Structures are given as structure tokens and as C-alpha cells.
Amino acid sequence: MIVLILAALAFSGFAILVAKLVTKSTTNPQKGEPYECGIATTGKTWVQLNVGYYLFALIFLIFDVELVFLYPWAVVAKKVGWMAFGEIIIFFTILFMGFLYAHKKGALKWV
User: Fold this and answer.
1) How far apart are CA 111 and CA 48, in angstroms?
2) CA neighbor of 102 nearest in space, from 48, 70, 66
3) What CA–CA distances, in Å, run from 50 to 55, 58, 62, 74, 81?
4) What's the rounded Cα separation, in Å, for the pair 71 and 91?
5) Which residues on adjacent β-strands are paired with residue 39?
6) How distant, in Å, are the alpha carbons of 6, 10, 14 from that of 3?
7) How many angstroms separate the first and last alpha carbons of the chain?
8) With the C-alpha atoms ordered 13, 18, 21, 27, is the resulting torsion angle positive or negative?
């Protein structure tokens, strides 16, 4: 594990070093400005968003990633038999409990 961590740090450090050496650095004040869709910004550019949007996105991401686990299960479900069925029932139960918890906390209400 230590070797993998060191390799990852060395690889990313090397990539950053090469990028710094190869690209030319210019100090242009226009680069520091907020940019969206080619239209110059007007008014305040720092706006706080409601945390509800963040929670909604995280819950969507969690359920979306959990859906990926269904594909390997579907491939081996017939071969494994009833044990696979029991495991997926447990999986869905835990997933549903997470959904109920999020619903109870009001994280699914759009503000």
C-alpha cells in the first residue's frame, strides 16, 4: 500500500512539474475574474447557495453509485441462486432505510 501511495504521489508530482515547466505563465487580471457562458458578470459574484441543493445532489450521487452494484449482481444472480437473492434483499433494505432517513430529515424537499 505504501508503494502505491508513493507511486501516486510521484506520478502526480511529476505531472504537475512538467505542466509548470512546459506552460508559460502570464499574469492577466482577466484570468482571475469569474466567467460563465462568455457573458461578463454583473453584481456580486460570490453567492451562497442553500445547503439543501448540496444534500439533494449527494443523495442522488449515493443512490446512483449504489445502482452500479446491481449490474454485477445481475450477472451472477442465476448462478449463485437464492443466496444472491437474499443478499440483494439485504442490500435494498439498507438502501431503503437510507432513503427513509433522508426523507425524514427533509433532505429530499426541494427548497
Assistant:
1) 14
2) 66
3) 9, 14, 19, 38, 46
4) 13
5) 36
6) 5, 10, 16
7) 44
8) negative
Residues 6+ apart with CB under 8 A from 35: 41
- State the Cα–Cα distance between residues 75 and 64, nearest whole angstrom: 19
The per-residue pLDDT string of the chain (111 residues; one tens digit each, 9 = 90 and over) reads 999 999 999 999 999 999 999 988 777 777 777 666 767 667 776 778 777 788 888 888 888 888 888 888 889 888 988 998 999 999 999 989 988 988 898 877 776
Q: How far is CA 85 from the centre of its chain?
A: 29
- Rounded Cα distance between 62 and 96, Å, is 12
pTM over 0.90: no
The CB density around residue 76, as the number of other CB atoms within 10 Å, is 10
Measure the CA–CA gap between 11 and 5, rounded to whole angstroms.
10
CA 31 to chain centroid, in Å, comes to 27
